[in-house]
Amino acid sequence: MVDGQPLRILILGGGFGGVYTAMALGRRLGRDPRVEITLVNRDNYLVFQPLLPEVIAGSIGILHTIIPIRRLCPRVRLYTREIEEIDLLRQTVITSPGVDHQATTLHYDHLVVALGNTTRLGEVPGLQEHAFPFKYLGDALALRNHVLHALEEAAVETDPDVRQSLLTFVVAGGGFSGVEVAAELNDFLRKAAANYQGIRTDEIRVVLLQGGARILPELSDSLASFAHEKLLHRKVDVRLGTRIAGATAEFAILKSGEKIRTRTLVSTVPMGAHPLLAAQSWKMEKGRVVVDEFLQVAGHPGVWAVGDCAYSLNAATGQPHPPTAQHALRQGQCVAANIAATLRGSPPTAFSFSTLGQMGALGAHSAVADVMGVKLSGFLAWLLWRGIYLTKIPGIDRKLRVSMDWLLDLLLPPDIVQLKTARPAGIDRQHFEPGQIIFSEGDVGDLVYTIVKGEVEVLREGLGETARPLAQLGPGQWFGETALVGRAPRNATVRALKPLDVLTLDREGFNSLFTHVRPLHQFFSDLIRERSAISG
Ligand SMILES: Cc1cc2nc3c(=O)[nH]c(=O)nc-3n(C[C@H](O)[C@H](O)[C@H](O)COP(=O)(O)OP(=O)(O)OC[C@H]3O[C@@H](n4cnc5c(N)ncnc54)[C@H](O)[C@@H]3O)c2cc1C
């Protein structure tokens, strides 16, 4: 107790690091009324990421890769909220509001930071807008639905270029997750194509881009080249020494300048710092919070960090511990033991663990594995991969469900149901490269655009005439409103002059604002009048 108050232990993040800290603390201190353990996470479940690529093909039930945190940590108070702010001076954390509109302030005596990292999309133009990240369940679901949509459209598309782009799938990043996603996607697409009249399997192209000289740099040369050969054999186009330089809705643009026509780009590129952590005064290294051997943040007693967001050195090798689940969960257990030791007045224990092994699935009942120095590839490695992950997935119910899914998957064809769960967002972001047409005269007016960065020119083409420039627009300016308000086809063509980032507002969203928000109604009415006068 501190001044009659229970001692407050606050855990931020419900991935392997946070949940295993909470589980271990719950076992050690959960029944002690003098201690209060709280966990804040965006979702009320833990994602078992190693099985996430299987969600793409539907070979594992969507809900079977996630485990409810409440069931894993029954003695812990859970807030399913967004964490908005960490204040190390006041020892508080602010979360997003619950059902009312008030933010919640949580106070702590011990803070365990386990927020993971973020997929670094913002650094490459267009990636944020057009690439699929692959880290959480929502990402895997969104990708699965998008891929099925691409097959649906390709089956009825007559333009050969559009068809080619719909049937080309690009995965950036040749580490474990990139390789597993490419392999799983490739298998699924080739099996699923049998259900789509008119799509031949030889039209499907999965491209794996890897910046380095070989895929799976975490593995030995021989295992990596086995995996490479397997992927080539399955017709995956593996491109080494190739980095992504940009993306639009229609192209993946490579550093070499080559453009791959595609509507599906998945990015598993290396991770960046979590923005909440990057905003703090503590020391960061390679986007991770620097901790000492006890996993305590230097200069901040009572603040601990674990998992992908923690930069801790392996005392034996002098190298940082890699960002893997096997490290995150053990660090969580170590921090729980150290907090309990601190409360007892005992000395903390240094974290010590070396990677047990690495495994990667290659699809079609094949995998590569390097476990405690034993190297395996092919079917045997695949059996080991499945066996190990079945034992690792927490909870007997999930083990049973996943085993049943795997059994049925051997017997049944792939499921090609496309779930349209979310209403398309009213506001979205898009990126265009110079010269790219945003829309053409005569197109249907479906979106209004506001320029965030870059420049466009507005052109009137007329029948058989050369294009006549009407205007150039830059940041903060709008275009595309006339067709939506007038419910008419586009009366001009708009082309990007510089790399362009825009916010788009769909017809329904725009019409609601235009009809009900008076200043906006006035603004757009004046704008349309002004522009009609210019264009004649
Ligand atoms: C596809 C894939 C396959 C993988 N395969 C393997 C494997 O086979 N073996 C292995 O060891 N590792 C594997 N990994 C890596 C492993 O999953 C990670 O190292 C591990 O999940 C890290 O755990 P963590 O708790 O540090 O972070 P995370 O799992 O990222 O957890 C962070 C949590 O914090 C939450 N959060 C973040 N910001 C906020 C916020 N502002 N508000 C509220 N909540 C927030 C997130 O929602 C998340 O739940 C794989 C990863 C991926 C993506």
Features:
536 residues, alpha/beta, 5-stranded parallel beta sheet, 15 helices, globular, binds flavin-adenine dinucleotide
Detail the topology: elements first, then pairings.
Blueprint (H helix, E strand, L loop, with lengths): L6 E6 L3 H14 L5 E7 L3 E3 L5 H5 L8 E3 H4 L4 E4 L2 E5 L4 E4 L8 E4 L2 E4 L4 E2 L7 H4 E3 L3 H20 L3 H7 L1 E5 L3 H17 L12 E6 L10 H13 L2 E5 L3 E4 L3 E4 L4 E3 L2 E4 L3 E2 L2 H4 L5 E2 L2 E3 L12 E3 L4 E2 L13 H20 L12 E7 L2 E6 L2 E5 H14 L3 H16 L15 E6 L4 E3 L7 E7 L2 E5 L7 E6 L4 E2 L1 H6 L6 E4 L3 E7 H10 L1 H18 L1
Helix pairs in contact: 1-10, 5-6, 14-15
The structure holds flavin-adenine dinucleotide.
Average pLDDT for all residues: 92
Strand content: 25-35%
Going across the major beta sheet, what is the strand order?
5-2-1-9-22
Poorly predicted sequence stretches spanning 5 or more consecutive residues: none
- Characterize the overall form: globular
What integer value in Å does the Rg equal? 26 Å
Associated small molecules = flavin-adenine dinucleotide
Helical fraction = 25-40%
Number of strands: 34
